[in-house]
Amino acid sequence: MSTNKIAVYSLPDLKNTTDDALPNYLTSLKFKQSHVLTDVRLALGYLAVAIAGATFYADYKLGWEATKGWTLWAVIVYFILNSALTVWIWRFERGKIFVGERNNTLLSIASSVTKHNPLYQIKVRYSEAKGGDWQTKDLSAPFTKWFDADGHFVAAPFQQWLASEIPVIGQADPQKNKATSPNANADGNSSTLAKVGAASLGPNGLEGLGSPESNDAAPSMTPRSKKKKRQA
What we know:
By secondary structure, this protein is an alpha+beta fold. Helix content is 59%, strand content 18%. It has 8 helices and 7 strands. The longest helix is centred in the middle third of the chain and has 30 residues, at 64-93. The N and C termini lie far apart (67 Å).
């Protein structure tokens, strides 16, 4: 469990914390993350800032008349770079939080949330061999699956969800995948039902499963019924 607390009603905080945990988990499974998307975005951003800074410095030192020709070209290049950055973010990154590979298995995961909807949504694309066919899965789960009521992130259920829903992650982490397999859940449910059944099954079927009020009211009816029989 994470020691850091976040506001459980803040979707951006819930998403960002989960986004940060996902690459950490995958790299622990020996997935090699590719940083090409981030590197290109940073390069475009820094280059645009550098041009703006250089233009300001030249204008400050040389004056407007000496630099107005260069300023025009700088503005054009700055506009092109920012347009390229916008296209890169919306066309190529598309919310991707992990792109990587493991043993020739390629994996790409993008995340998103919908306003006023506490579901973590991911779009998964994977190929079990380089040059092979890509498989796509759209998954979603409530943040309450891996955040407790106090806002602590609990890694185990999040990792189990990924391993059970995404085959290539389940292959890399069979222990997490096994922990959430249908047979395991069925065994757990069976044992739980057995305990409930032993405690609540009586000669007439289910007993003792009503509300506290109904359970308290039941004994009080017995003396009244006996009293009516005596009067009769």
